[in-house]
Design brief:
single chain; 374 residues; alpha/beta; six-stranded mixed sheet; 41% helix
Length: 374
């Protein structure tokens, strides 16, 4: 998978940007707040349909009616064109794939990209929401079916929660819960089963990467943690069929308590992902260096998982990551990316982070203007 061209109009601080990329390494140099990250963010948005902002309208340049992202890329040696219009008002975004209008659920997975930024270092110590999002992004890109199943689960969860509140206020009968328990149990079983299988695969890949980056000094282990399992008998296995019955019984047993709280107290929307380095929980005992190494190992494992599912590596987006690594790890990372022919976009403030001779392209950015270094 390679991106040939990026065209942006009124996206963040870019009035207009027309950029041809190298199919290997692309380095964007400049001071902070010049627009380097915005280029990576446009690709990440085109891949996932979401951005690291509270509202899509924040992606539109000040006083403009809409932002446009257009990418020309290849997947499985077939060229594609993806265009996204992001309005500044309440109109829905418009997505065109090869000239045809598509919905969000139909374009997830068309362009696979993995983004790594210093924010990812906080994933281990932040709330479980960030770790669930990490898993959801991997699975949604690897399998469009998962994205559809997750959307279904979230819709059913919202409907059950609304019903719980109505029952609490004597506006609905408790007997109505059975239908939602059954449907939510089916959706929960599918989500949990896929997540557990993904974590088992990720565990192997991530440990291999962790050992390479840490010079064999660290072993990384991952565990999928079902929320409040201490108050629920664990299932005999994690097949979809077994989990369906298990979830149904738990939802049913918690009907009364869930009505009192007005929300669903059990399910994959509350689960977590735990990390251990040499047997110790990373969240509690990990050093800053171990956090950096583990975050990088996970991202490299993520691109390997996507390659295994899609048959080719995704685009790798590294936002100001080089400053977080020492010289040896920077060198090993670049060697790995070049050896695997992974198209990578890297932002940095200093050219000194890179070898004197770079295979690829170097761009300089200042206040939304970009120049190619010959």
């Amino acid at each position: 998978m390679k991106i040939f061209k990026i065209w942006l109009k009124d996206f963040r601080n870019f009035a207009e940007l027309d950029l041809n990329l190298s199919d290997t390494i692309n380095i964007f140099l400049g001071r902070n707040a010049q627009g380097k990250t915005n280029i990576l963010e446009s690709i990440n948005f085109a891949s996932l349909g979401t951005a690291r902002v509270s509202k899509d309208t924040e992606l539109v340049r000040w006083s403009q009616s809409a932002a446009l992202i257009r990418l020309n890329f290849s997947k499985a040696d077939v060229s594609h064109d993806l265009a996204i219009e992001i309005p500044s008002d309440r109109r829905r975004r418009r997505i065109l794939f090869d000239g045809n209008t598509v919905k969000l659920r139909d374009f997830i997975g068309k362009l696979n990209a993995v983004m790594f930024s210093p924010e990812d270092l906080f994933m281990f110590r932040n709330s479980p929401v960030t770790r669930r999002r990490f898993l959801n992004i991997i699975l949604a890109q690897a399998s469009p079916i998962y994205f559809s199943e997750l959307t279904t689960y979230n819709r059913l969860l919202e409907q059950r929660n609304n019903l719980l509140k109505k029952i609490r206020e004597n506006m609905a009968s408790p007997s109505n819960l059975e239908l939602w328990n059954e449907q939510l149990a089916d959706a929960a079983a599918r989500i949990t089963s896929r997540r557990i299988n993904a974590v088992e695969n990720l565990k192997i890949l991530a440990n291999e990467m962790q050992q390479k980056i840490s010079a064999q000094s660290e072993n990384l282990s991952l565990e999928y943690e079902i929320h409040d399992l201490a108050n629920a008998t664990a299932p005999q296995n994690f097949s979809v069929e077994t989990l369906q019955s298990w979830y149904h019984e738990i939802f049913k047993s918690r009907n009364f308590s869930d009505v009192k709280r007005g929300s669903t107290s059990f399910g994959p929307h509350l689960d977590d992902l735990q990390f251990f380095i040499n047997g110790k929980e990373l969240r509690l005992y990990g050093s800053q260096g171990q956090l950096r190494t583990t975050a990088l190992a996970l991202k490299l494992s993520e691109i390997q998982m996507l390659k295994n599912s899609a048959g080719e590596y995704p685009i790798l987006l590294l936002d100001d990551v080089m400053s977080e690594l020492d010289a040896v790890r920077r060198e090993k990372l670049l060697e790995f990316l070049l050896s695997q022919k992974i198209q990578t976009l890297i932002t940095a403030t200093e050219k000194a982070y890179f070898p004197e001779k770079i295979c690829g392209k170097v761009f300089h950015i200042e206040n939304g203007a970009i120049e190619f270094e010959e």
